TrEMBL record:
Residues 550-628 form the AMP-binding enzyme C-terminal domain. The gene is acs. This is Acetate--CoA ligase. Its EC number is 6.2.1.1. Pfam families: ACAS_N (PF16177), AMP-binding (PF00501), AMP-binding_C (PF13193). Transmembrane segments: none annotated. Residues 34-86 form the Acetyl-coenzyme A synthetase N-terminal domain. GO terms for molecular function: 3-hydroxypropionyl-CoA synthetase activity; acetate-CoA ligase activity; ATP binding. Keywords: ATP-binding, Ligase, Nucleotide-binding. It comes from Halobellus rubicundus.
Length: 664
């Protein structure tokens, strides 16, 4: 630690409340505290403010239809098109301004700027091509693509013709792709030949083709973007059959214009699969009117985005953060959104700061796991660059510890930028709990109060509100426009997963319905919420949600494994890491070979992000007398913590045997 850091720690360590700077407040999009009361008194009509940020082809009749909870409908009767809202309506005033600044891996020096006019043009051309391939309204189109501009182009092209997209994170495995295409009966895939990772070309089409082999229905067409050019020749891929080259399709449709399809506000804009407690991922359904207005309103109110900004979110579009806050929110507001390909430590550990400097980014939205890594690498990396263009900083994905918060505040924001710590989920569509940066003080470690009009409360197991300081469960007691509408083709599971816990599921009174995000939390006297983490069997690795069941079933699928239990253990940078406790089958040794096959099995089934940090072989798992695995105990072992009373276990002797392996 340098002298500066020592001084910073001393000065900032004591401080637990931070005010936004006057300079920020003066220009903030929302600067009046009265908004909280106004929205509460005027709920749900207050959400017209969000809908008003969009252009509607047909006005809506009702703000909220809550006649059939929890199947809420927003802005009913309204019609709009998401691609027209993100592109066409900006053309007159901002046609020549940058819509997307794409910063590619620094291999080819091929950064690209798309003005709104250029983006509009290519989206139209590709939309025409998709139609030619047979894509119709409501056909689900899957995208399996890394951070290349053709991904947002494809998303907007689908939105233009009313075809919902389902983006599968490029780091997911072939199996994960197949599972998601099967679950959605998706007959179209858009992918690419490969991409660069730390300077090296990586074969992606092979993985896509393996995934396609696992699809249980006919695939009408696959579109392949040529990202690597001659650098991909070594992979030897030839497009065959129903595979098309993206470049050829766009060229063949040069200058084509496709009228944006007027979609009902409640029509599906996209599906996004996310991990749950069971092995089967959940297909979260988002709609055109509610989702887009939520993404736009929160981008304006929380990220303080204005059209003249150059806004930079370092997330991947394969996750919800990228959907809402790289693509839809920023483009709906007509600003410049920066997307980058690669990793924050290549070619050097100043990649993000280099981008902020070069593009003069005004906001940076990133994840605590990244901030913890930056902190570890040291402040000399940001110090190499001029970061004075930044006006606001944000974090998302997991709780941020006060030390990391303060490092971010000082070394990236120069104590001038407010930080918004935004709690939300794939299911919520956009931000729910965070400070409004021009209005509220910040408390490091605490996300802040619920946004105006959001009725988030902390309750106990009975659903009763708990007092300040006590841990409980986070709930949302009123619907909001950006909420998921259901789990795709599975209304029952939608109710079971999110509502059953605290609702009277026989009632048609919306007051009896409470949304449960499966996070633990506490609240302080000022109404600031500190989110404590998941309370289900989902772990959060580097801000990514992984179901322990999914990982366990991958491990049990490996030859030689009899049983497995997966838990999250604390990790300095990743937040949580995967710990796998494994019982081998008779005749199989728990050796390095099996360990390697287990790691490979998890990577094949899910992807490298789910790779176990440790595989611990054990003859038994600690179980209660009723036969339940004591996960809490396995977590304590992973975290090197003192183990409490184990005498109620069926097999207490096993605990010490496992502990010695992990902790000593
Ligand atoms: C946007 C996103 C959602 C889960 C969520 C919670 C955790 C997200 C957080 C946070 C504490 C924050 N989470 N933001 N925990 N503070 N600011 O991350 O969506 O991938 O669906 O994950 O992430 O546990 O339930 P998703």
């Amino acid at each position: 630690m340098g002298d500066d850091d020592v001084e910073l720690e001393a000065r900032l360590a004591e401080q637990d409340v931070f005010e936004p700077s006057e300079a920020f407040v003066e220009q903030a999009n929302v600067a009046d505290d009265a908004i909280y009361e106004e929205f509460e008194e005027n709920w749900p009509e207050c959400w017209q403010a969000a809908a008003d940020l969009l252009s509607w082809d047909d006005d809506y009749d009702t703000v909220l239809d809550d006649s059939n909870p929890p199947f809420y409908e927003w802005f009913t009767g309204g019609e709009l098109n998401a691609s027209a809202n993100c592109l066409d309506r900006h053309l007159d005033e901002r046609g020549d301004e940058a819509a997307i600044e794409w910063v590619g891996e620094p291999v080819e020096e091929d950064d690209r700027t798309y003005t709104y006019a250029e983006l509009h043009r290519e989206v139209n051309e590709f939309a025409a091509a998709l139609r030619d391939l047979g894509v119709g309204e409501d056909d689900v189109v899957t995208m399996y693509m890394p951070m290349i501009p053709e991904l947002p182009i494809a998303m907007l092209a689908c939105a233009r013709i009313g075809a919902p997209h389902s983006v599968v994170f490029a780091g997911f495995s072939a199996d994960a792709l197949a599972t998601r295409m099967n679950a959605a009966d998706s007959e179209y895939l858009i992918t690419c030949d490969g991409y660069y990772r730390r300077g090296d070309p990586l074969d992606h089409l092979q993985k896509a083709n393996e995934g396609l082999a696992g699809v249980d229905h006919e695939v009408e067409a696959t579109v392949v973007v040529d990202r690597l050019g001659p650098n991909g020749d070594g992979f030897g891929h030839d497009l065959k059959g129903t595979q098309h080259d993206y470049g050829d399709l766009v060229a063949a449709n040069q200058g084509a214009e496709v009228d944006p399809v007027a979609r009902d506000a409640e029509d599906m804009l996209f599906l996004m699969y996310t991990s749950g407690t069971t092995g089967q991922p959940k297909g979260v359904k988002h709609t055109t009117g509610g989702y887009l207005s939520w993404a736009a309103w929160t981008s304006q109110a929380v990220l303080d985005i204005e059209p003249d900004d150059t806004y930079f979110c370092s997330a991947d579009i394969g996750w919800i953060t990228g959907h809402s806050y790289i693509v839809y929110g920023p483009l709906a507001l007509g600003t410049t959104t920066v997307m980058y390909e690669g990793t924050p430590d290549h070619p050097d550990k100043d990649r993000l700061w280099q981008i902020v400097d070069e593009y003069e980014a005004t906001q940076l939205y990133t994840a605590p796991t990244a901030i913890r890594a930056f902190m570890k690498w040291g402040s000399e990396y940001p110090e190499r660059h001029d970061l004075s263009s930044l006006r606001l900083l944000g974090t998302v994905g997991e709780p941020i510890n006060p030390r990391a918060w303060k490092w971010y505040y000082k070394h990236i924001g120069n104590e001038q930028c407010p930080i918004v710590d935004t709690w939300w989920q794939t299911e919520t569509g956009g931000m729910m709990v965070t400070t409004l940066p021009g209005v509220k003080d910040m408390k490091p470690g605490s996300a802040g109060p619920p946004l105006p009009g959001v009725d988030a409360r902390i309750v106990d197991t009975e659903g009763e509100e708990v007092g300040a300081g006590r841990a409980g469960y986070l709930t949302v007691q009123k619907p909001w426009p950006g909420m998921l509408r259901t789990l795709y083709r599975n209304d029952e599971r939608y109710i079971e997963e999110y509502w059953a816990e605290y609702s009277d599921t026989d009632s048609d009174d919306p007051d009896e319905w409470v949304y449960f995000p499966e996070d633990g939390a506490k609240i302080d006297d000022d109404g600031y919420i500190t989110v404590l983490g998941r309370v289900d069997d989902v772990i959060n690795v580097s801000g990514h949600r992984l179901g322990t069941m999914e990982i366990e079933s991958a491990i049990v699928g490996v030859e030689g494994v009899a049983e497995a239990a997966v838990v999250g253990g604390d990790h300095e940078v990743k937040g949580e890491a995967v710990y796998a406790y494994v019982i081998t089958e008779e005749g199989h040794a728990g050796d390095d070979d099996l360990r390697e096959r287990i790691v490979a099995g998890v990577e094949n089934a899910i992807g490298p992000i789910a790779r176990p940090e440790q595989v611990i072989f054990t003859p038994e798992l600690p179980k209660t007398r009723s036969g339940k695995i004591m996960r809490r105990l396995l977590e304590d072992i992973a975290n090197g913590e003192e183990l409490g009373d184990t005498s109620t276990l069926r097999n207490p002797e096993i605990v010490e045997e496992i502990r010695v392996q992990v902790q000593d």
